[in-house]
Amino acid sequence: MAELPxxxxxxxxxxxxxxxxxxxxVSAGSASRYPADIAPFIATxxxxxxxxxxxxxxxxxxxxVYLIGESYPHVQQLSFGExxxxxxxxxxxxxxxxxDQPAQPKGNRSAEAHEIVExxxxxxxxxxxxxxxxxxxxxxxxxxxxxxxxxVRSDGELIAMAGERLMHDGYAEISGVCxxxxxxxxxxxxxxxxxxxxxxxAAGIASWLHVGSKNERAVGLYQRMGFExxxxxxxxxxSRRH
Length: 242
Description:
Blueprint: H1 6-9, H2 12-17, E1 26-28, E2 31-33, E3 42-44, H3 49-52, E4 64-69, E5 78-80, E6 84-90, E7 116-119, H4 124-132, E8 149-154, E9 157-168, E10 171-179, H5 188-203, E11 206-212, H6 216-225, E12 228-240
Parallel strand pairs: 10-11
Antiparallel strand pairs: 1-2, 2-3, 4-12, 5-12, 6-11, 6-12, 7-8, 8-9, 9-10
């Protein structure tokens, strides 16, 4: 059975910014955030009015960021958007991993295997362009600094990628999982994710992820790989009024 301890993962952004990602933290009182060019996430030590009142000083007017948590009180300085549910899923340590091999199109063993390559800041523009097709606004110019990222190319074009985002002591989030629409259903996303999982297992850390509760296609893929649903958390879009 997979585990994601509630004391860490009910407030995962705060936990990451006070452990493996403390070097990214921009803080004011009881609020901390990632720099805007890294990730649009902010967190408070607790879901209280006093903590929320520290948030506006970390935002520019109109800037959209996200709080993760069950519920938050509304404060005058902040505008709250429509919330949506996100599942946290984790891979149990008992799940057997497939062999390490090039990303191979499913059902077509005669097709050319796609080599998995490591991505870096030099690839930031094309990484942003690819993820914008699937989830615009979340992946930024420096998001790749949060962890390792891998990709697959076809005729020189980046067509699939996956990497690491929120990092905690003993736990690494798989994120940025994206395949160009013209290359879906080839098993590329799973191959990239297994690449990450293997590196996590070798380091003795657990693999986990966030996925939209209503994203049935992605949830189904992760369940077929062996990931288990742990809990549902809520994403709260907020912005500074003035």
